[in-house]
Amino acid sequence: MTSFHFQRGYHTESGSSVYPISGDPTKSTDTAITAKASLPRPTPLRYSRRLMIRSLFVLVVIVLLAPRAYSQTTVAAPAWPKPKPTSHDYAKWEKTIAGFEEADQKNPPPKGAVLFVGSSTIVRWKTLATDFPDVTVLNRGFGGNQIKDSTHYAERMIFPYEPKAIFLRAGGNDINAGWPAADVFADYQAFVAKMRQRFPGIPIAFIGLSPTIKRWEQVAEGNRLNDLIKAYCEGKDGLAYIDCRTLALDAEGKPKPELLDPDKLHFSPAGYRLLVEAVRPYLPK
Questions:
Q1: What sign has the CA pseudo-torsion 145, 147, 151, 157?
Q2: In terms of pLDDT, which residue wins out, 282 or 35?
Q3: Nearest-CA neighbor of 267 among 133, 119, 168?
Q4: Which residue range is the domain that position 107 belongs to?
Q5: Contact predicate 113/164, CB 8 Å
Q6: Which of 157, 171, 224, 251 is the most exposed place for a label (fewest CB within 10 A)?
Q7: What percent of the chain shows pLDDT beyond 90?
C-alpha cells in the first residue's frame, strides 16, 4: 500500500493553498498570507539597480587603487644613473683568475706577447689572433670586470706573462655600476702606475669606449672618461688613447644596429672588423 505525506495548509477563497510560515497550524490564514507577502521579491528593475551600484563601487575601487599599484609594480626605478657605490667586490672574479692560472699551467703562454685585458669586448674578440697574424697576442679579458679588477689581479693575470705591450678596454661596466667618470679615470691612472712600476716604459694603449644602443643614456659619461684619458695620454711616452667613440655611429650620430650584437651592447662581427682597423696602427712593430 502506497503512503502519501501531505503538508498541512489552508486554502484561500481563490482556491490556492497557503502554508503557515512558522509551521504552526493554529495561525490564521490571514497571518500566513501576510507573512508570505512581507517577503520582498527582487524585481528586474531592483536587481538592475543593485548590479549597477556594485559595478560603480568596483570601478571606484579600481580607480583609487590603480595609481598605487602601477607605481609599485609597473614603474621601476631607472637603471641608470645609479648611486655611487661604496665598495667593490673583487672576490667574485677569483674563480675566473684561477681558471687562467690552471690554463697557463697546462699550456704556458709565450712571454713577451701583446696582452689584451679588460671586459667583455676583449672576451668576445675571438678572432684576435687571426686579426693580427704578425703579432703574438694573448687575450686575458673577463666579462663584466672593471678597470680596478685588472689592477687588483695584475700579479696573477698580467705580470706572469711579461707582456711586450698592453691594450686595455674597460670602463663601461664601471660607469654602468654608478662610478663617475672621474673615479674611473683615477682607476685607470692606478692601473698605469702599477704596470709601469713593474714594467717601466711598457706601452699601454687604452681602447676608448663606444656608444651602444643598450647604454645610450651613458654616452655622455663615457665620453667624459674618454676625454680624461685622452688628455692624460697626450705627450706621455708609451701611453696611447684609441678613439672609438664614432666607430659604430651613423651620419646622425646614432649607433648602427648592424655593427652591434643582437644584445645591442657588444660589437657584431662587422663591428669587430672596424675595431681591428682602429687598433692596428697602435700595435708594436
A1: positive
A2: 282
A3: 119
A4: 91-282
A5: yes
A6: 251
A7: 71
Residue 11 pLDDT > 70, yes or no? no
Mean pLDDT of the 240-260 span: 96
Q: Which residue has better confidence, 260 or 78? A: 260
Contact indicator for 244, 208 with CB cutoff of 8 Å:
yes
Give how far the C-alpha of residue 271 lies from the chain's centroid of Cα atoms, to the nearest Å: 22
* Closest C-alpha among 218, 133, 126, 135 to residue 171: 218
CATH number at residue 225: 3.40.50.1110
The verdict on residue 65 lying in a domain is: no
Q: 187-201 burial, b if ≥16 CB within 10 A, otherwise e?
A: bbeebbebbeeebee
Least confident of 50-64, 119-133, 198-212, 259-273: 50-64
Helical residues (DSSP H) of 141-180, grouped into ranges? 147-152, 154-157, 172-176
User: pTM surpassing 0.85?
Assistant: no
At residue 270's C-alpha, the angle toward residues 269 and 276, to 5°, is 85
C-alpha cell at 272: 669587430
**Does residue 225 lie in a domain region?**
yes
Number of separate domains in the chain: 1
Q: How confident is the model at residue 22 (pLDDT cuts 50, 70, 90)?
A: very low
Cell numbers given for 266: 657588444
Q: Is the backbone of residue 112 left (phi > 0), alpha (psi -120 to 50) or beta? A: left
DSSP 82-151: -PPPS----GGGHHHHHHHHHHHHHSPPPTTPEEEEESHHHHT-TTHHHHSTTS-EEEEE-TT--HHHHH
